[in-house]
## 1
Amino acid sequence: MKKVFAIAALIAGVTFAVSAQDKKPEVRQEVQKERKMKVDHQRKIKSPEEVAKLKTDHMDKALKLTEQQKQDIYKFHLDKAKKLEVKREELMKAREVHRKEMRAEHETLKKLLTPEQQELYKNKLAEGKKFRGSREGRSFKHREMRHKRMDRKMPVEKEVKETNENSSNS
């Protein structure tokens, strides 16, 4: 009787595993679409008033604020959001100035090169863009794996040092 239940459980487990693997790519795509929509929604630049209201409402839900606290916290968040908006605008202007400088430098450099060298230079720039694009998606995952490997190595090295110290003291 136990064997029959064990075999039935094994068959059910294998069937479940196979069916779960079949649906995995579809589910993964749906999850990715949902995440992208959520991130796109969050990236829309909101006015300082909207930001202050959202943050105040969030704090109110978590902390059950009084009306006076809500007003004070709203003013605080509004002031902070306005300062952040000014900084964002300054950064955008600085970025645009930097881009213009880089374009001007690029044009000056192109004038110094022969047409053949310009073509080679253009190809090198295109290669660089392609390389940068290929490493964006995997950087976090590989960084995470490197950290895990480093964490595994650290205790081993400490143990080796301790054993060497103990052997020299004996």
## 2
Amino acid sequence: MAITDCCKLTAVVCLVLALAVTALLRSQEARIPSDSRIDYFPEKGWLRETAQWDGEHGRFLVSRIEGGIGAVPYSPQSGPVREHTLVSRSIEPPFAGLSTNGLKIDPPRHRVLAAIADLVNNKCSAVAAYDIRNWEQIFFLKLAGPERASLADDVTVDEEGNIYVTDALGALIWKVAPDGSSFDVLTERGAFAVVPKIGYLSFATLNGISYHPEGFLLVVHTSGECLFKVSLDGQSVERIEFEGSLYGDGIALVSPTQLAVAGLWTGVKLVESSDMWVSANITHVYATPRHRVATSVTVKDGDVFVNYLIGQGYPYYSTIGRAAFTPVSS
């Protein structure tokens, strides 16, 4: 075969592959409802770990793997919008090289809480609070240092202002005083010991965490694919009776009986309990675009919105979109 013929064949194969990939991506993207998706150009960095709906200001707050916090206005069907920086990435201590992971808005205290960590070397975990009115830092509290590997992953807050942060590597929960002046390890070592079901994610333990208004915590174990119910004093840690597969990352309480769980590339699941979270089951699922990676969920006016870690396109844009759930057949 002549060289020219080989070149022509190669060009045709590449064209066919490109068309196939484009068709696949379009079919995956069609899973995000067009009437409520928000495409936006990230201002700094490429990866977004968490999105939280800020109803008071009509925007989503997003955390940056590269460090910092941004704001995305809610304007579906208006074309891509631009993210605005609220907290910049810093190259100065104590923030140098740290990622911003979980976010939680604390409306009664007009603040935003952030789980912050050394994502690469796992030599530092911390929690920070910012005034949502002017974005001044209220406090920064170091939770763990180079003495052991740790990863502050997600954060929630109870009605008294106590803050709870998950350690995705240490399988523990830190409880932080409302003013950020001190902290304790809430749970005993080994309280969340489970056999990992996902071998390649065995390092990932506790992940998403949510405060329940009845006075306890719900937390997901990623590699164990299970949920736990934890008392606010840490004395009771109960594994919730559950059937199904979660691959859980970020979680959000939709109602006292419903919990939305982001499942990375496996989609989002709606988990329901009728016995105050002694047991639960999956009632609805949402098949997200696999190439996007769903890392967190938040609730806006009763609807669940999904944050996607990875964007796409040229110019590059990120996306937040409503979850289009379908019931699980009995």
## 3
Amino acid sequence: MPRDHVDAVVEEWRTPLPDVVGPPMELGKRIHRLAGRLQEVVRTETAAAGRTPAEFDVLSALRRVGPPYALKPSELASGLLLTSGGISNVLRRLQQDGLIERAADPGDARVAWVRLSERGVPAAEKIVRAVTAAQARQFAAAPEALVGSAAEGLREVLIALGDIAKEDD
């Protein structure tokens, strides 16, 4: 079997610090390299659509929740790991471009909602389709069963580390 870049890095560590070499190091380095490749795909596709990765994340999150495609800014920020300042900037740009609307909650004036505009729904769908198609192309050289098995294995690792979906808590 051919060696990957991580095999070479691990081999270099075997002499100076053999105690750091093992499956945790290998998994971490491979996830890091794969994440970098996937982040590049997102950057390329979002730039082609005139959006930033953060804008893509917001549009995607709003589209994913289904009609009326609305979330609170705090839900967006926490789900996307953005600061309140970061989410405010992203929301401002998306609102200026007519892709989202912001409105106060009629039942609680302290609560604001962000929702996809009529124009934002198809825009969100278009960019989500572009990014997922590019991700599929990224994995096209690997057998589908291998990709599925890797996804399942990583799910198990994340669950073991406590990354549990809210509804399963």
## 4
Amino acid sequence: MSYTTVCKYRNLGEGEMVPFTVDGRKILLVWPDGGELKAFQGTCPHQNAALKYGGFNGRIITCPLHNWAFDARTGRGVSPPGCALEEYPLRIEDGMVQVDLSGTDPT
């Protein structure tokens, strides 16, 4: 695995969704209420809308175009079911959030 540093862990908080561009890919760092920090693709699989312009209520990520909704703990589609966000491996190393984009192909 090849991890890339994204940001300082201490700059993130529970209930937040923060967009980043890593190696040319849009990603979201999402910390759902009562959950753990996750890294997902930053575009909706439906029409590639930037999810950073959508909503996040601490549990659900919502696309700004057609209101597709995703569970922030798993990336699975809530509405419609059967779709999902690509999740990237994530680790905290020396206080830094790092993600691994190798081998993934968000659609």
